[in-house]
Structure formats: structure tokens, C-alpha cells
Design goal:
Strand content of chain A: 25-35%
Strand order of the largest sheet of chain A: 11-19-18-13-16
Radius of gyration of chain A: 23 Å
Largest interface: A-B, 90 and 106 residues
Protein name (chains A, B, C): Copper oxidase
Number of strands of chain A: 19
Keywords (chains A, B, C): Metal-binding, Oxidoreductase
Pfam families (chains A, B, C): Cu-oxidase_2, Cu-oxidase_3
GO molecular function, one term (chains A, B, C): copper ion binding
InterPro entries (chains A, B, C): Cu-oxidase-like_N (IPR011707), Cu-oxidase_C (IPR011706), Cu-oxidase_fam (IPR045087), Cu_oxidase_Cu_BS (IPR002355), Cupredoxin (IPR008972)
Order of helices and strands of chain A: EEEEHEEEHEEEEEEEEEEEHEH
Number of domains of chain A: 2
Number of helices of chain A: 4
Distance between the termini of chain A: 76 Å
Oligomer: homotrimer
CATH class of the largest domain in chain A: Mainly Beta
Shape of chain A: globular
CATH architecture of the largest domain in chain A: Sandwich
């Protein structure tokens, strides 16, 4: 029978309320079902980093010395269970400064998207799964495979992890200070990139909390790949983990390259359904959203300084842009573009030419 | 031949203008093609509800006494034709208060997304398909199947219905006051949920027009499922109809659970194309957007108080969050989480712990 | 081995920096790989159009006399290579007025989404690929096919082209003044529409830079299809190229019609994967986003004045709406809707009834 159901007539058959039941009740589980014990362990440190002007900066690192924002990119294979032990080395005084409500607890945490974890690894204040200053806590993440019996999809995808307690119950100050990083869960057979870059689009027109020239610090002679220097050789498979944080909507746009709007960013398969997949070069990213972009650097289009920017015009105008520098197969940037024109005519870069990489002669 | 066509060179061959043609012209049809007569009828009432502070609240109900916001969730099967008779019991004086333009007509209406309807069921002022105070009108909705000859897709999906005339030509005041509800159109064989919840994300950081503690009023001892109490037992299939209303962008995020970004929220099929479907746990929702989320409550992650919130940080901080309470298979909430820590240590819930459900001993 | 990789440990093996290498280095290529020479050429003019109030208006045209905003819709077939020669006829004085930074160069350009182009056709100031006043430049676009060896998707899709230099390094003033147009790349066998309309959603609640009555200027007796008059006969396949520009988020919503969220806007195929494709009637569009909507005008729902609007309520209330006028198969608008009620009762159109098309008797 076809029915029109008012929500309010749903009833919870057999519900005994939230109160703890009698002696037979099990405790909340420590690990997700399917993870009997972790396949691997990682140690992560949350530390305070040098301030960026007046801005407090925090970061996650595999060692306290290598902490950064974004934090280290984690990679898992579907089926794997990972135990991440987080040490909170952020001074209590700093956490107090970031706290607006004196009744909110002091601590940092690890809240992850996409993979499975129990309440004890939720990373929230309400579940008490955070780490007070000077202490540590182990979070268990399970990259569950698709379960056709239960009807649940797999966890392979592009995700991120972040603090959920610094400053308030949603970790707004923790995220805003730098406590976030990327997570890729791959399926066996997924394409493996030659390079992986995080592109975290956030408030104040920032990419990875920087904007304008600060978002591209590539040394033109010896560019060192990293969060503020995106460089690849022609033909390399480059992967972007795109994440939105903060309060605003953004779009991720890259010049000269496009990708398939799929789980991996790559198109596979051969039939009519494959033919329906959208190829895009601009995608809206809201806070909490994450997706993967996989491209072949310079494919068909060749080397060059390819812009990456938010297509909200006032965002890009305010500095929400960076550049993917695609070198030729030998690692050189060929002449022939406007840069050489610049050098040979007036020597002055045009306004808005961005980072220092354009000053090469 | 490949062509570059300027839009302006398109011409309307044979167009005779909008004016009514001679005697041979047919009237605008009352029902969509394919619906000879309704398979089913529903009676709906639009009424005024108690104010929420100064806010006027209206609601749709299957009876005047059970009207609510959101209104009753409608369910149809592809191929079905439904006649909904709407009785406008909202006082004319209330509608006048909500009207900013004295030339705009007084009335309420039913405008539906996704399914088929003729101009006479459009629910707009410009088509005069609204209901003046004290009157009624029958709207015909047709859940058309895919038509491979015409090349049109089916109408199965997650939709919503809403007023389109209260206050102005777009029903802004009607929607903002509570005149909206969910509609699910299923295809034969689609997974059937054990529970369905509406999550309408709107202005002023509201979920179903409430925020903060008001968005989760679950009684910890006897939680009654409803718009402000999301509860399920482990293993139950829970469906969310997520809808955006108002002026702002939001994201729907749920902790510990994820879903397939498909028509049903569930992943089916076995080949390379299936493998390309994205699993997500956060999705941007703009006004007018609607999508379905289907999850197995507690799958792998177990029972607990799982947060649902907008991931725009200033939205969640301002109260745009609620909780899905997942009980164990027996309907109990197991101990072991932070809540018991709280009870046994200081007894004080942390700031931001949300609704009263956390005060259980 | 499963690894946790910090981004910063990526290294660029063999990178020689951006500086020009020795004599063996090739120049930046003029054309994308795969395009040995253009299959077709197009001439495009950028001109100044009459102001819209105080607003400077620019447009692209296949001739200077036919320039408009949006510019001509371009159409390509996958595999095709197109050379577009752009003549900049916009007065230097106008470009100076639009420039906020006196060091930014004067010129207009062509930056295209989706298809392939080298740095020399990037249309940016930093690559010097723009056109100073009174000059011309040829841009080469290559609608590359899917490359299964490289693992790159095809370029078929709904795209747009726009200026990237007027006013500043992101072309904000060029786009805002009207320098944009649509591009459709089709694959052999893709459905061919009977009519194509551009729907560019932008700042100040504009559709194609107009709003309110200005967005629908259809003559009720002889409606001439164009950017401000959307009209079709029942049964015609109508295609919308939906593009977002400017600073704001919007949603594209159409009454009575829906489409498949696929590459073409049409659903093809027969299996379980096809069944997972979402049918939608409202889609969020951020700046830089573009997608295609294909519908059969009046399918099942019949003729009528079908609203198209942004579902952000304050946007539609402020005039971000237009109408698709669906005539019957003979090109007439049948009586029977509210319009005739209006004519026979008071003769007054309700507030918000929109463009003059509702005044037909």
C-alpha cells in the first residue's frame, strides 16, 4: 500500500531510553566492528607553531619538529585499521587563549571524516574523546570496505581529519589555527599519483591558511614541493586533496586541466554509464566538503605556470590563488611564454603576476 | 557541419505568440499527461501554529490538529498519480501580516519539486493556482516514470513541497514560517528505510526552524522520534531527507556514518561504474536543493550520540547541530562513553554538549 | 607497504628550477598536443556596448555589430581544434576606467574552461596572452577526446569562456561587464537540442546581467527567442547552459521540469548504475561552475509560463527570475491558466507576475 506518513507517527518500538540498562548492557565499543586490532600505528603530535602575525598557529606532525599546517597527509587502504596516538603538546595557556567559554574543556582532538570510528574516537567534547594538555589518546580509524549485505558503501575517498574541541564544541579555533590534514583511502587498483598536494580553501581567502604571495613560495631555481609550492614535471600524475574549512563557500579551479567528477578523480570503465560522468575544471567546495582531483600535469597543454584559484572573483582578487608550475620532462621551464617577454621588454611583471616565481630572468 | 551559433539567431519557427489562438486551441490541461485520474487522494490543511517567540509559525498537516513544521512526509511510487486537496485555514489577518506588498494576493499554496504537474497545480500567484483563505484547491502530482522515447528521466528521488505565495511571489514568508515538507518518490525495489527524518537546513542556523537545544528535545528515558528527536537502534536503516531553504548555503554532516552520493543514498551494482560513485559524509545544500541520505545506524561504529551539524563553523557554533542517538539492538544506550565519565567525575556536562539528552545519569 | 606521507617529504627528482635551461630547451608550445593545425577558425570581436544605467557594458560578438552579453554560444565536437581570433575593439579609455591598479596592463582576453590550450592561449596577464586595445590575438582551443592511456577524461561538457584581464589579474571587471559566453563540447551521438539558452547567474541577483522585468522581455505576440526571452514549443528539446559568475552562490531552479545530473543533462543506459543517477530540478551553481540542463519542453506538464529562478529566497524576491514560455505544438499559448482568470476578473496581474508577457488578453 502506498502511504502518506507523518514523521510524528514513527514510533521507536522497544526503545528503553538512553539511560544505562541493567547488568547485561555492553560498554560502548573501543574499536569499530571489523577491526579486531590495528594493522598499523601512527604517532601524531599537536604543537604550537610560530605565529603568523598575531594569529596563533597550531599544527599536527609525525614529530613535534615537523608539525605543519596542513598536517601530514595520511593514506590508508580499504580494509585497513589504523591506530593514531595523538600527543597534545600545545601549551594549556595557548588553548586558554583560544577558548571563549571558560566552561569548555581544554584539549585538542582528532576527528576524522569518511572512515569508521566509535564514540571513543569521535574527537568531541561531548563524548570526552579529546586530549587534555600534556596527555595522549589513541584514536582508531577503520577504512571499512563496502558491505553489500548491510548495504553500506566503502570508505575509499578523499577525506580530512581535524580538531573538534579547541575553542568550542566544534573545534572552530583549532581548525582555524591549523589543526587539519588530509586523508586518502584507496582501493586496491586505484591509480597512484606521483605527487599529492593539499588544497584547503578557507576563510580570509586562504589556501592552506595563506593567501597571495604567501601561498606560492616556490624558489624559481630550486622549487621544493610542499604546501606553498606546487610543482610537477609534464606527464606526472598529480593529486589534489581539496578540502573546505571555515565559514565560506569557495570553488577550486585549475587552468588548462580538468578531471572526472568521480571517487578517484579519474574516469574508468567503457560503457554508457561512464559516458555520463561529468568532466569539470571548477568545483564548489563548502566547509567540511572534500574531494579528489587527479590530473596528468601538462597533458596536451604543455609546461607553464598554471593558475589555481577560487573563482569567486572577490576571493581571487584578494589573494586566493596559487600556481601549479609544470616543468618539461627534464625538469626545466621552457621559454616562450610571457615571462620572457617580460624579461626582454620592460623587465616588470604585470600586476597580479603573483608569487616570486615570475621574477626569473 | 560544426557551427558556431549565436543565441540571437535562433528563431521560433511557426510561433504564433502567447495570445490565445482561435477556437481550436485546447485549454491548459488540468492533469499531467499520463495521469488520467488520480490513483490516490490526500487531504492537507494549512494552519497557523503557536508562535515561536515573535515568529509566526504555519504548518501543513493531514489534519488541522496534527499540522507541524516540517509538514507530513509524503511518499509516492514512480508511476503513481496523487491528488492533494489543500484547505487554507490560515487566518486572512495572519497572511496580511506576512504580506509586504498590498497588491500581492492573500493565500497559501502547494508547489512541489521533482514530480509532474500542470500550470493549474504550479502553486504560484502568476498562474493563480493558490488557495485564498477559507477555500481549498486540489493539486495533482504525477510521479512520472522514465520515458526512454522522450529522453526524460524518472521522478524517483528526494524532493520537497512548499508554499509559493505567502508574503510574495516566491513564498518566502510561507517557507520561512513553516510551510514545507518532504516528498520521497521511490522506484519499485528501492531500499525501504526503518525510519525517515527530515533535515531542513535554513536561515538563522536552523534545522527544521529550530537551533541549539531546541533542535534536540529527546527525552533520555523515553525518546519519541520526531523532527526534534532523531533516534534509532543499531542496524536500522535510517533515511534523511535533506532540504535547503532560505537565503544561505549550508552543509549536512553526520558523524561516524557516510552515504553514497546516488539517487537513493545507497550504492548498488557491481562494475567499474559503481566503483566511481563517491562516498561522502558532508554535502553542500543550497536553498531548493534536496537529496537523500541512507545509513545503517551504528554500522561498525556502534551506539552513541552521533552529531549532525552544518560544517560552516559559525553556523554550528551558533546552534546548527543536533544528534542522532543510536541505541543498541535492545534499545538501550550502553555506558562507556564520556557521558558516564562526566557523571562519575564532576557531574557537569562540557560546554556545548547540546540537548538535555546528555544529562542522563 | 602502507605509508603515512608528510607532504613536505615529497621531492622533485631532477628538477632544474624554472629558469630557462640550456640550448636544448624547447619553447612553450603554441598549440596543444593533438592539434597539429586548427580544423576551423572563428573571428570574435570584443566591443563596448551601450551602458546599462551607469554600468559599462562590454560584449563579444561574431561581428562588432552583433556583440552581446552573453556572447555567442560556441559549439565544438570532441576531437576538434578551433582557432579563435579575438579583435579588441574596446576603447583604451574604457579599459582604463575599469582598471583599479595603474600597473595592470590594458587589454581583453579569452580564457576558456574545459578544453585544452597552451600557456599562449591562457588569456591571463601573467602569461601575457591578452590583447591590447586595437590589436588581435589567436587563441587555440582543442576539444581533446578521452585518452585511456594517459588516464584523462574527454572534454565534452558544458563550459564557458570569459575575459581574464580587464580590471585586474582575474578579469573581474571584464566578466562583470559582459565578457563571457557559453561553450558546448559534444560527443558524436550526443542529443541535439532544438534550442539553446544561456543562464548566467551572477551578482546583484542577475540572470545574464539582468533582473526582474529586464530578464524577460518576450513580446507576447511575437516572442523572439534570445537571452531575455526563453520560449519553446511543447516537445522541443531545450538546452540550458548554466554558468555562475561573480561573487555569490546561486541555484538554478525550473518549474515543472527536471533533468538528469549527467554530462549531457540526459539519462542514457539501462543498468543498475543508470538507476543511481540523480534527477534534479534545482542545482547549486558557484562562480566558475557550469553545467548543462536538457529538458523536453512541456513534457507531461503541458504549455504554460514556467518559472526559472534562483531558490535563494532573497535573490528571487529581488528579481532573480525569468520564465520559460512553453507554447503548444502549434505555437500558441492555450487559455485555461490563471492569466485568463486575471483578464476576466480584475484585469490586474498579481504582484510579482513578472515580465510583460502576462498582460496578454
Amino acid at each position: 500500500m502506498l502511504v502518506v506518513a507523518a514523521i510524528v507517527v514513527l514510533s521507536l518500538v522497544g526503545a528503553g531510553g538512553f539511560a544505562v540498562a541493567g547488568g547485561a548492557a555492553a560498554l560502548l565499543p573501543e574499536r569499530p566492528e571489523g577491526c579486531n586490532q590495528p594493522d598499523r600505528t601512527v604517532t601524531l603530535y599537536a604543537v604550537e607553531l610560530p605565529r603568523d602575525g598575531n594569529q596563533i598557529r597550531l599544527g599536527y606532525g609525525l614529530t613535534p619538529q615537523t608539525a605543519s599546517y596542513p598536517g601530514p597527509t595520511m593514506e590508508m587502504i580499504e580494509g585497513e585499521c589504523l591506530a593514531v596516538t595523538l600527543h597534545n603538546q600545545v601549551p594549556a595557556a595557548t588553548l586558554e587563549q583560544l577558548r571563549t567559554d571558560p566552561t569548555h574543556p581544554l584539549g585538542v582532538s582528532l576527528h576524522v571524516h569518511g572512515v569508521k570510528y566509535t564514540q571513543l574516537s569521535d574527537g568531541t567534547a561531548q563524548s570526552f574523546s579529546y586530549v587534555p594538555p600534556g596527555q595522549s589518546r589513541t584514536y582508531t580509524w577503520y577504512a571499512k570496505k563496502r558491505d553489500r549485505t548491510a548495504g553500506t558503501p566503502g570508505t575509499a575517498g578523499y577525506w580530512w581529519y581535524h580538531d573538534h574541541v579547541v575553542g568550542g564544541p566544534h573545534g572552530t579555533k583549532g581548525i582555524g589555527s591549523g589543526l587539519f590534514g588530509g586523508l586518502v583511502v584507496r582501493r586496491v587498483g586505484d591509480p597512484k599519483p606521483d605527487r599529492t598536494y593539499m588544497s584547503v580553501f578557507g576563510d580570509q581567502q586562504s589556501i592552506n591558511l595563506r593567501r597571495g604571495a604567501a601561498a606560492d613560495t616556490c624558489d624559481p631555481v630550486n622549487p621544493v614541493p610542499g604546501p606553498t609550492c606546487i610543482v610537477a614535471k609534464k606527464g606526472e600524475r598529480v593529486e589534489f586533496i581539496v578540502v573546505g574549512i571555515g565559514n565560506d563557500m569557495h570553488t577550486f579551479h585549475i587552468h588548462g586541466h580538468s578531471w572526472a567528477d568521480t571517487r578517484t578523480g579519474v574516469l574508468t570503465g567503457t560503457n554508457a554509464e561512464t559516458d555520463q560522468v561529468q568532466t569539470i575544471d571548477n568545483k564548489t567546495v563548502g566547509p567540511g566538503d572534500s574531494f579528489g582531483v587527479q590530473i596528468i600535469a601538462g597533458d596536451s597543454v604543455g609546461p607553464g605556470h598554471w593558475m589555481i584559484h577560487c573563482h569567486m572573483q572577490f576571493h581571487s582578487d584578494a589573494g586566493m590563488y596559487t600556481t601549479m608550475h609544470v616543468l618539461d620532462e627534464n625538469g626545466n621551464m621552457p621559454p616562450g611564454g610571457g615571462h620572457e617577454h617580460s624579461a626582454t621588454s620592460s623587465g616588470a611583471a604585470p600586476a597580479g603576476s603573483g608569487a616570486g616565481v615570475h621574477q626569473h630572468k
